[in-house]
Specification:
Pfam families: Guanylate_cyc. GO terms for molecular function: adenylate cyclase activity. By secondary structure, the protein is an alpha+beta fold. It folds into 2 domains: about 100 residues, Beta-Lactamase (2-Layer Sandwich), CATH 3.30.450; about 210 residues, Alpha-Beta Plaits. Helices cover about 40% and strands about 30% of the residues. The chain is built from 9 helices and 13 strands. The strands form 2 sheets. Strands 6, 7, 8, 9, 10, 11, 12 and 13 form an 8-stranded mixed sheet that branches. Strands 2-1-5-4-3 form a 5-stranded antiparallel sheet, with no helix packed on it.
Length: about 350
């Protein structure tokens, strides 16, 4: 701090002593060397040189030997009930442990911790939904032969559904992180459940989009029909949820859906208890391209899907054409705006 004027250094010193009640320990090789400051505030009494530090300073259990110093623990509840900000740093004489009174910040840290806990619960809930779509259903519905084939990789004729939460990324950044994540989780959950109910497997969920495959699980009925039925249900569910959110003056979104049918290479990757379905091929590229053009409350399907949905064709109108690549054949797209 030699670059700071002495008056400023003195001010900082007085500020810390007056408002933060500093206390310290010096530790070397796990043993207490010296101590000082307002230790009684934090509940430390009758210390002896040479004591094993973990027996006296219980919050250090598991931290010794110290690695990757410095360590800062912003709000640790001491045995006395006082919250302390803990700084641990190394010096030539040993490792210093500095305690500063954190009571004035305790409520703020408590709120942040609760937000962290809430986000953890959200992630766990979302994880369980996704696990239901693959791990549990594989165990219940797929033969060992099919599982073995998928683990090696297999080419299958499937229907891919991509549900995109429209304008999410551009709209949600102005909101607090906890509210943003909770909102995304609500919409993802609303999207995923109808897909699972109609035999889809969620292969990818990230950010503003969910991708699901139909035609992997041995479910009765055309994959294209089931995917289209699921898409209608997703749009209706999300729209109903958004109407409620608007009444409550919460941020609300619409969903746009793209569906493509055809041949893909699919496989299962991951550990025994946490498997992920992967799918690659030009059909994936097409559905992702369609996803960029997703329209709120609309379902867009390619020609292959249109030809496979029978009486449901009555809902769809030829809307536009996309190209798979620079020199590829045009792909007609049919759209249904769900009323």
């Amino acid at each position: 701090m030699s670059h700071l004027p002495k008056s400023i250094v003195k001010y900082f010193q007085e500020l810390i002593f007056e408002s933060r009640c500093p206390a310290y320990f010096l530790v070397k090789d796990g043993y207490l060397v010296s101590w000082g400051g307002q230790l009684s505030l934090y509940g430390f009494h009758h210390l002896e040189r040479g004591e094993v530090v973990e027996k006296k300073i219980l919050f250090l259990a598991g931290l010794l030997p110290f690695q990757n110093l410095p360590i800062i623990l912003p709000c640790i509840k001491m045995e006395s009930g006082v919250a302390a900000e803990v700084h641990i740093f190394a010096a030539a004489e040993g490792d210093w442990i500095l305690l500063l009174d954190a009571r004035r910040y305790e409520h703020q840290y408590s709120i942040l911790q609760q937000q962290g806990n809430d986000l953890s619960l959200i992630r766990q809930h979302h994880s369980r939904l996704l696990e239901q779509s693959l791990h549990d259903r594989i165990a219940a519905n797929l033969s060992q032969e099919l599982v073995a084939a998928l683990e090696k990789g297999d080419r299958r004729d499937v229907t891919i559904l991509l549900a995109k939460i429209c304008s999410l990324n551009s709209s949600i950044e102005d909101y607090p992180p906890a509210e943003a994540i909770a909102t995304v989780n609500s919409y993802i959950s609303a999207i995923v459940q109808p897909l699972l109910d109609r035999g889809g497997i969620v292969s990818k969920s990230f950010g503003d989009a969910v991708t699901s495959l139909f035609g992997i699980l041995p479910v009765t009925g055309s994959p294209a029909v089931r995917a289209t039925e699921a898409a209608i249900r997703v749009v209706e569910t999300v729209r109903g949820m958004s109407q409620v959110r608007q009444v409550d003056k919460c941020i609300a979104f619409s969903v746009g859906i793209s569906i493509v049918s055809g041949s893909l290479i699919v496989g299962i990757a991951g550990s025994q208890n946490q498997k992920t379905l992967i799918a690659v091929g030009d059909r994936m590229a097409i559905v992702e391209q369609m996803g960029f053009q997703a329209t709120p409350n609309a379902i867009a399907i390619d020609r292959n899907t249109y030809d496979r949905i029978g009486e449901m064709q009555i809902h769809f109108m030829r809307s536009h054409t996309i190209f798979k690549g620079i020199a590829s054949e045009p792909i007609p797209i049919f759209t249904f705006l769900v009323a």
